[in-house]
TrEMBL record:
Residues 89-168 form the Methylated-DNA-[protein]-cysteine S-methyltransferase DNA binding domain. It holds the Pfam family Methyltransf_1N. This is methylated-DNA--[protein]-cysteine S-methyltransferase. Coiled coil: none annotated. The keyword DNA damage applies. Keywords: DNA damage, DNA repair, Methyltransferase, Transferase. PROSITE patterns: MGMT. GO terms for biological process: DNA repair; methylation. It is an enzyme of class 2 (transferase). It comes from the Bacteria. It comes from Bacillus velezensis (strain DSM 23117 / BGSC 10A6 / LMG 26770 / FZB42) (Bacillus amyloliquefaciens subsp. plantarum). Residues 7-85 form the Methylguanine DNA methyltransferase ribonuclease-like domain. Belongs to the MGMT family.
């Protein structure tokens, strides 16, 4: 039996969702973009956990995919699965703050900066959010611009819109703002 540390992965599919999902023996470490490629997972693993080897194991990922299914199909509002996050101390603080955003609500980047007691670090917060490896479970989709506009999202703006709509966010209002302002800022 190999002593090499492992990242177990599966391709989660439900309805119109297709997400590469991965976990170590400690917890969920990656959820990819909707309809993203396996290369997205490979590149993240090579950069974040180069000593780990990837291995498909649908059974080991079952507890995580069950909760993802419940979120997508039944509006599960909180996740109970363990996470195994790798980042800088600052990134980890930002990701922890994201998990404090209530289901169905949105916060701004400056709100997150204030939550971590670094109110001047708005741009750094944005960069940390962009590095979030666990989409959905660490809900970076709930962060929008201070002016209410949708902003960048690792999974793409269409996925962000879908997640906000799934959580009951008023996506029509957000889309109206986008059409009135001519795009994303």
């Amino acid at each position: 039996m190999s002593k090499e540390p492992m990242i177990y992965w599966t391709l989660f599919t439900r309805n119109d969702w297709s997400l590469y999902t991965a976990a170590t023996s400690k917890g969920l470490c990656f959820i990819g973009s909707n309809h993203g490629s396996f290369e997205e997972l490979e590149q993240w693993a090579k950069k974040s956990l180069p000593q780990y080897r990837l291995a498909r194991d649908d059974e080991k990922l079952a507890p995580y995919t069950v909760e993802l299914s419940e979120y997508i199909e039944n509006g599960r509002s909180a996740f109970s699965v363990p996470l195994d996050l790798y980042g800088t101390e600052f990134q980890l603080a930002v990701w922890k703050a994201l998990m404090d955003i209530p289901y169905g609500e949105t916060y701004s980047y400056s709100d997150i900066a204030k939550m971590i007691q670094k109110p001047a670090a708005v741009r750094a917060v944005g960069a940390a959010i962009g590095k979030n490896p666990v989409l959905i479970t660490v809900p970076c989709h709930r962060v929008i611009g201070k002016n209410g506009k949708l902003t960048g999202f690792r999974g793409g703006l269409e996925m962000k819109k879908q997640l906000l709509a799934l959580e009951g966010g008023n996506i029509e209002t957000l889309e109206y703002r986008l059409s009135r302002t001519g795009g994303i800022t």
